Automatic annotation (TrEMBL):
SUPFAM superfamilies listed in its UniProt record: Homeodomain-like
Residue ranges flagged as DNA-binding region: 50-69
Protein's name in the database: TetR family transcriptional regulator
Taxonomic superkingdom: Bacteria
Keyword Transport among UniProt keywords: no
Compositional bias of kind Basic and acidic residues: 1-15
Annotated stretches, region: Disordered: 1-26
The HTH tetR-type domain, residue ranges: 27-87
The species this protein was found in: Microbispora amethystogenes
């Protein structure tokens, strides 16, 4: 009779492989759904496109669509960038000034995005700023990002996330981010977003000289 496995045993390498494969498959499905949704939105408009059409194009069932994106709006507004940025912030040397650390973290986060991912982000940003139904969801996402940045910078500085200094810093950075996004959309992506944002953060870091 075999002995029972310890509940606290370390995962077997094969377990990690299975988990990794499963996560990659889920990420691929999520990406395919979003790509097909953006393609259909561009071809026939956001309002005219249904979840059923997106699911059919992505070769998944509508129920699978809803497992990845609770609503049609979410297929445009949801992304995985905040966790990536948070990890990049925490990886910065503790002696860096706050804005320098944030600027470096944004560079690191953008390095994980290839040209295709940036193109999808541009398409999503255009939709988010032009479709009334999406604007409220974008506001929710901005508040979530503000909270994430405030928590990360407060953690670095050993300050309360609600302190005026932390909130002023995060507010200034979010203003720079929004200005960079608007410029990116106006230029139709001519200047890469990482370049626009890094330049804008540089102005902020230098005290906003004009």
């Amino acid at each position: 009779m075999s002995s029972p496995q310890r509940a606290d045993r370390a995962p077997h390498p094969s377990d990690r492989v299975v988990t990794s494969l499963r996560e990659r498959k889920k990420a691929k499905t999520r990406r395919t759904i979003q790509e097909e949704a953006l393609r259909l939105f561009a071809e026939q408009g956001y309002d005219a496109t249904t979840v059923e059409q997106i699911a059919e194009a992505a070769e998944v069932s509508p129920s699978t669509f809803f497992r990845y994106f609770p609503t049609k709006e979410d297929v445009v507004t949801q992304d995985d960038y905040d966790p990536i940025l948070l990890e990049a912030i925490r990886a910065q040397p503790p002696d860096l000034p706050p804005l320098t650390a944030l600027r470096a973290a944004f560079r690191t986060a953008f390095e994980s995005m290839g040209p295709e991912e940036l193109d999808r982000t541009l398409a999503r940003t255009k939709l988010s700023t032009s479709v009334p139904a999406l604007r409220a969801r974008i506001t929710e996402g901005l508040f979530a990002t503000i909270e994430m940045l405030a928590g990360a910078m407060a953690e670095r500085a050993g300050r309360d996330r609600r302190s005026p200094a932390v909130r002023a810093l995060v507010g200034a950075v979010m203003g720079v981010m929004l200005a960079s996004l608007f410029t990116w959309v106006e230029q139709n992506g001519r200047t890469p977003l990482p370049v626009l944002l890094d330049e804008a953060l540089g102005y902020l870091e230098a005290g906003l000289p004009i």
